[in-house]
Amino acid sequence: MRAVLLLFRFLSTMVAITISIGLCNGNLGVPCKESERQGLLLFQKDLKDPSNRLSSWVGEGVCCNWTGVVCDDLTGHVRELHLKKPDSQQDLHLSYGDFYVTSTWLGGKINPSLLSLKYLNYLDLSYNNFQGTQIPSFFGSLKSLRYLNLSEASFEGIIPPQLGNLSNLQYLGLRGYKLKVENLQWVFGLSHLKKLDMSRANLSKASDWLQVPNMLPSLVELHMAGCQLDHIPPLPLINFTSLAILDLSENTFDSLMPRWVFSLRNLVSLSLKGCGFQGSFSSHPQNNSSLKELDLSLHNLCELMDLDLSFNNFNGNVSEIFNSLSVCGPDKLKSLSLGSNNFSGHLAEHVENFKNLSHLDLSANSISGPIPVSLGNLSVLTELLIYDNQFNGTLPESISQLKMLTVLDISYNSLEGVVSEVHFTYLTKLKDFVGEGNSLALNTSRGWLPPFQLNRLWLDYWHLGPEFPMWLQTQKQLKLLSLPNTGISDTIPAWFPNISSQLVALNLSHNQLHGEIKNIVAGFQSAIDLSSNQFNGSLPFVSSSVSALDLSNSSFSGSLFHFFCDRMDEPKNLSSLHLGDNLLTGDIPNCLMNWKRLVMLNLKSNNLSGNIPSSIGYLKRLSSLQLHNNQLSGELPLSMQNCTDLLVVDLGENKFVGSPLTWIGKSLSILKVLNIRSNNLQGDIPYELCYLKSLQILDLAQNNLSGTIPRCFHNFSAMATFPNSLILTFADYLMDNVILFTKGRGAEYGRIMLKLVKSMDLSDNMIYGEIPEELTSLVGLQSLNLSKNLLAGRIPSNIGDMKWLESMDFLMNQFSGEIPPSTASLTFLSHLNLSYNNLTGQIPKSTQLQSFDESCFIGNELCGAPLDKNCSANGVIPQPAVEQHRGYHLLEDGWFYLSLGLGFMFGFWGVLGSLLLNMPWSIAFSRFLNSMVFKLYGVIVDYI
Questions:
Q1: CA 943 to CA 940: how far, in whole Å?
Q2: pLDDT tens-digit profile of 798-811?
Q3: pTM of whole model > 0.85?
Q4: From 797's CA, which of 25, 451, 463, 873 has a CA 20 to 30 Å away?
């Protein structure tokens, strides 16, 4: 009997080993069923497979040995298809052009032949590219399925309700932003479901999105992140109490957090990131009826390991959350994210009780006080994010005890004092150190050997200088180095190229670095900012790997020829180039055809001369062209009309000539900023400019333009609206800083301000006629300058519709009549100049208008505050008394009037009268007189 038992055990063991080996190899040699093999071949035939992933699916071979196919070891039936894209993470590093060549996605159509796989219980098609394809409804007939994952496979359209027929399903992955549902009633049929992931699918019309999952008693994981949900329906009865993971992040509930969440006692992970939840957190609320104070009851969530409440509108004392989480014992919590809320108070020392915390994010709140010394006791902490708060005092040396720390971000606080080598003694695993925006100084010995190898180092505004930090040469894995405003006054050391060659981002701007730079070497597609230093000599040679370079505001000199034209055979990958505010001279060389990747080109404020080269037409990706404040001349090349992606054209303060170009309006149709001020342009303003519907800033001031203001200017629709969001779009990032003249002075505006500014400046030209009524429809304008022209007639009566105006300058024109009463509606007006016109009557009464200096109204026949002249009851200015000084009665002398009349008659008919018979001469003479008046006015103003 004993022998029989031993034999049985031996045979059992051998069977188990055989089965195990078979599982590892995918089959036991049992051939797959012919019908199923044919079904797989038909399925493969309709697929797109650019990388030939399914190359093994051929011939008469055993289909159980094919890639991704798993069969039953005994019957040979196909049980599983593992066709998930294997390198979904690697594609993040592919360039746009390489994606479709090297990617291993599957695509195409899903053939119904899969129905022949009657025993299929596992199907994974996730992270592929079935673009334009709906999820097949016949999937609902694969009744044996227990696992179905179609996430991020680019399926689109309505999720078929037939999936509700898969009563054996335990896992359902439908993550994807192109998917949508009308309701979730079909989910009721999935009674065995344990995990449901519909993140990023559009559930905005599914009012039952919560009630249906609540009726699935076996549900363990529910993922509905980013589903465009905006309302949480009430749940009178909680059924899905087995939930361990709940993710409702990135929806827009904008309400109080539902209390039922805190009754889910089995929760291990809770993510409510970016939901707009609000309220005050307290572990001891005064009463449960308060709508602004929440009893988190976190002591019920004793299994919680991961809590993410970041990017909401919660407030209250941060220590209360730690108190509430301590009730169950803080040992289980591993990740806590409270970033981007409105929490305040101090971080208490008992944070050390959370000894298993590996991730702590308290960033972007209003937490103040010192950083607790006890933080150093969190021995397994790998990420500490406390940036953008109000922590003060010094950085505690206990930070050095965080031996597992890989990411430390303390930026934008009020920390001060000295950071020394002691702070880093045991931080051997540190990869990212971000400390910018504090008043800290790094004090290390010259021969210091750091214990870490960093990937990112961000120490903006620290004091590091005057010497270049020598210890940086030990950092062999650096990808990002940012040390602007750190007081370094030195030359770049000879060893630095060994570091920079691996960098993808380098910022050494706003220091006192000096000397010459021969070469700039950096990592692939890197961004280099060396601006605002004291470098001199010729421009350096830049390696082809650099994609963005800023050498502005230094003392580089010489020509641009070698920079642009040397090594023409090498590829040029620069997309952004800023060489402004240097001492560069000579022409812009005509060899731009090799720089076709350029998106932003800034050469402003140098001493460049000559014409814009015709080769600029090869820069078809160019979005921003800044040549402001040089000595460039000639006419703009016609080839510029090939640069159809231009958003910003700033050619101000040069010597360009010719008439305004009609092709600008026709070819540069998405232009947002056009600045050609202070040049020598002549002729009428072309009506073709009206095609520029996206134009926000138009500056044609200080030229010799004539004609009338085109009535079609009302087509500038961007000037007729005001932005409702400060969020920068992709196009906004393609706009460089621009110098604008508003409120009588010039200033440089960055991307965010440019998104807000709407401005029109036609001043100091010879434009005549009236202000077209249509111009007042540009109600988003903040600055309107029409000064120093020949404009006449009345100011439009509805000028008050332009309620966003902050600056209005009509100085030195020939406007007549009264100031429109609607002007009193311009409540944002902070700069106004109506002086030296022919305006009459009373200045409208408003808090704004009466606050201006009387010089804003002189040179008119106006009365009322802020002028000293009082208005009569009927609004007519009383005749001023004639002054009589020292016996001179000039105005009472009849001979004066006689001589004045005779002089006028002979002068007018002898000179001006003859000019009227010769129109070209009359126009020329009028322009001459106009320019002389403007010059005389300038002299008077300067003298005053």
A1: 5
A2: 999 999 999 999 99
A3: no
A4: 873
